[in-house]
Amino acid sequence: MLGKLIKYDFKAMCHSMLPIFLATIALTALFSLMVKLNIEEGLIFTIFTFLFMTALFGSMFATVFFAVSRFTKGLLKNEGYLSFSLPVDTATHIAAKVINALIWGMMEGFLLIVCFIIMGLFMGSVEDVREFFSEMFRAFGLIEKDVLFAALKVQLYVVLEMISSTCLIYAAFAIAHMFDKYKKLIIVAFFVVVSTLRSSLLNLVMSGIRFEKPFNNIFWYLIPVFFAALYSVITWYILDRKLNLE
């Protein structure tokens, strides 16, 4: 059943996200081509630059927006009646939403990599693209003999942080749903309080500890796992014990 729930949410987001992704790739190619041809002045270049930047940042915003929309519509609004009438427990519903958001978040990350590669190939060469990613790894202390292994470590951390962030957003909306008024204010306040507490906790734990190469220390991978579990428990408790769809 988990697979069917993920498939349903994935299809629902496809209708909105695929056109945005394709438009972003197309605008990246057109913008890079104009730079390659030294067309860097005039109204047309300004318009394409604006469209390119809007598409690039807009795709990231859209990924988050539609993932949150699937959560709220599917579990907190009228569609929730159908969702909770299925023979599926609350934890499975939450897991499906988190996994769907993770899939699209990873696709967004892949989209950005594709855009960087397109820009690199238009404006430089394959060697320039390789050097760009090597510099990124070097900045995070990830100079490894096996570059693929270094990339996998970064990807693992990014995935864990994405899961943690997704669970945080869902917990915020679940908490706000319990109130009749000031829901947006409650969401913002929850983000501020949780972010402050997390930063304070990390500063306390890391005081006196030096991590020269953070991605080589298992502690950095346990942080998002711990907070993702905490946020998920909060969301599960509200949806399973306190949810009111009336």
Brief sketch in words of this structure:
This protein is mostly helical.
How does this structure look, described?
With 246 residues, the protein is mainly α. It has 2 domains: 1-124; 143-246. The protein is 82% helix and 0% strand. It is built from 8 helices and no strands. Helix 1 packs parallel to helix 4. The longest helix is centred in the N-terminal third of the chain and has 35 residues, at 2-36. The radius of gyration is 21 Å and the shape is globular. The model has no long low-confidence stretch (mean pLDDT 82).
Primary descriptors:
single chain, 246 residues, mainly alpha, 2 domains, 8 helices
Poorly predicted runs are none
Total domains: 2
Classification by helices and strands: mainly alpha
Tally of contiguous helical segments: 8
Sequence-ordered SSE layout with sheet pairings:
Layout: H1 2-36, H2 43-76, H3 79-83, H4 90-123, H5 126-139, H6 147-177, H7 183-206, H8 219-242
